[in-house]
Amino acid sequence: MTAISVKNVWKEYGEQVVLERINLEIAPRSFVALVGPSGCGKTTFLRMLLSEELPTRGEITIDGVPLSPEPGPDRGVVFQRYSVFPHLTVLGNVMLGAELRGSRLLGRLFGSSHRQARDDAAALLDAVGLSHALDKYPAQLSGGMQQRLALAQALIARPKVLLLDEPFGALDPGIRADVHKLMRQLWHQHPMSVVMVTHDLSEAFHLATRVIAFDRTRTLPEERLRYGACITNDIDVWPKRVAGQPDFGRDPAHLPSRDDPALDPGQSDRDDPADAA
Amino acid sequence: MRLINRRPDRSLWLILAVLPFLALLIAYAAGSAVRLAENPADKLLPGLTAFADAIDRMALEPDKRTGDILLWVDTGASLTRLVAGIAIAAAGGLLVGMLAGLLPLARAALSPFVTVVSMVPPLAVLPILFIVVGLGEASKITLIVIGVMPGLIRDLMLKIDDLPRQQLIKAQTLGANSWTIAIRVVLPQILPRLMDSIRLNLGPAWLFLISAEAIASESGLGYRIFLVRRYLAMDVILPYVAWITLLCFLMDWGLRAAQSRAFPWFDRARTGQ
After folding, report:
1. pLDDT band for position A252 (50/70/90)?
2. Nearest-angstrom CA–CA distance, B157 and B152
3. What is the DSSP string of A173-239?
4. Which domains does chain B possess?
5. Is B184 in Cβ contact with A107 (below 8 Å)?
6. A96 CB near a chain B CB, below 8 Å?
7. Omega of the bond leading into A239 within 30 degrees of 0 (cis)
8. Is the CB of A107 inside 8 Å of chain B's CB atoms?
9. Minimal Cβ distance to A107: which of B172, B180, B269
10. Does B21 touch chain A (CB under 8 A)?
11. Which of A12, A64, A25, A32 lies closest to A187 in space, CA to CA?
12. What is the pLDDT of residue A277?
């Protein structure tokens, strides 16, 4: 189980402070959505979780171990675009993870290990609904199918943390609802935490267990350079979603009343909103 | 209907495409007829029969002195040099371009140097090549390599820069090391772009080849046309030029065909369908 801990992280580009005083404890198996206006640094924060950029100050740890300074297989990622490799077929894209880890010299597998990787990839592709398109190239897929492929490609590497950078932002509403359903199902099935950047609030509340808002608190012109964005809101989604347990949504039969105890207080290390009420 | 919205159908397209070629032929035939009417021995714009004679002499009958069929000997010599030069330039360009495009350390060491070297006019280096490597095949192949490779390197570096940065990040999250990123992610995507780059460099490659052959050689298409220039033998020069053009066109077409056969994903990704 993977707990992410962010301790007093700052990010500055030269004089410009982008993020300041970011402190976060993310419980294992959480699904955290980062929201905020454009330019508030939520994508910068995701890039730091990915080690694509390094914090100017502070430290990020996963299970108590500081993040490696470069991206690695413990953290998977899906971007809004360009997540999949255009020169590989659907199957090849998903097999690539096993091939890269299995063969440091050639990046290719042969014989029984190749068959094994192929079978694993085909099974996962079946689960994301792409079993009919194994031999197609990404350019032949629709946007929704490309993001399904990107999810399968990232998950085959069994990341501890899955990072999503506005992954569904470019999809049509109908397609987006389908991919949301898939995303929630994958989160339940795979032992990972998810951190997702989105500008869509309803998406954030629809999928996440916790929604974190970034914003600038100092916006006077003379302050903009030296004051960055920080966490302005940190909301537990209610009713509580727990990974691996059924989600009853707003079904009144399962909705606890305000005075009931939280469904599973052990799952969160934060004060529960039910207790506070 | 506005002109920008009028598109030719298949047959009209064919007619329009053939038209300029036809116009050139007619203009030539007319000019030739006028000059030949004035002076039957005119050498500047020979008639079709003169071409037929020359082609027969160069391409079908063995040369009286050497017993070789000159056109084929010339073509063989030129193509050997050209293909060798382009192959070496492509291999070297791929190696250096990948190194400089992928590794920031290699880029720091190579990029300014390559930029400066690519500014050296290759033909200005030709005398040095003749002095250093002699007048044989090596100097001609080296000229093509020097002329074409810096451009290929710079082009490939830019093409690697154009690959979305997300792909390199993604590959790292899938467990790739620098080497496997190079051979599994970058190389397969760069090869079709290298073929595009070679197509664009075919013209310069021929230019350097013919220049080298014209200055010091004993065979080759460039050697022949500069040799017969002394006798104003337009009946040989013009078919040779047409032949060179055809060879160049076929190489371009062949590379294009090989590209879409070997990299079927490339066209789809480029046109976005």
Report:
1. low
2. 9
3. HHHHHHHHHHHHHHHHHSS-EEEEE-S-HHHHHHH-SEEEEEEES--STTTTTT--EEEEEEEE-SS
4. 71-261 (1.10.3720.10)
5. yes
6. yes
7. yes
8. yes
9. B180
10. no
11. A32
12. 37
Report d(CA A24, CA A46) in Å as an integer: 13
Nearest to B89 by CA among B148, B23, B1: B148
A138 with B269: Cβ contact below 8 A: yes
The answer to whether A168 touches A182, Cβ cutoff 8 Å, is no
Contact B222, B212 (CB under 8 A): yes
The predicted-structure confidence for B138-161, as pLDDT tens digits, reads as follows 999 999 999 999 999 999 999 999
Cross-chain residue pair A76–B173, CB shorter than 8 Å: yes
Tell me whether B268 touches chain A (CB under 8 Å). Answer: yes
Q: Is B104 on the interface with A (CB under 8 A)?
A: no
Confidence of residue A275 (pLDDT cuts 50, 70, 90): very low
B187 touches chain A (CB under 8 A): no
Domain ranges of chain A: 86-158
| Residues A16, A39 contacting (CB under 8 angstroms) | no
Which class for A31: exposed (0-12), middle (13-18), buried (19 or more C-beta within 10 A)?
A: buried
End-to-end CA distance of chain B: 29
pLDDT at A38: 85
Measured CA to CA, the distance from residue B261 to residue B257 in angstroms comes to 6
Q: What does pLDDT average to over chain A?
A: 84
Q: Is the pLDDT of residue B113 over 50?
A: yes
Handedness of CA B242, B248, B254, B256 (dihedral sign): negative
pLDDT on residue B107: 93
**If you count residue pairs, one on A and one on B, with CB atoms under 8 Å apart, how many are there?**
91
How far apart CA B224 and CA A243 sit, in angstroms, is: 79
Cβ neighbour number for residue A95 with a 10 Å cutoff? 25
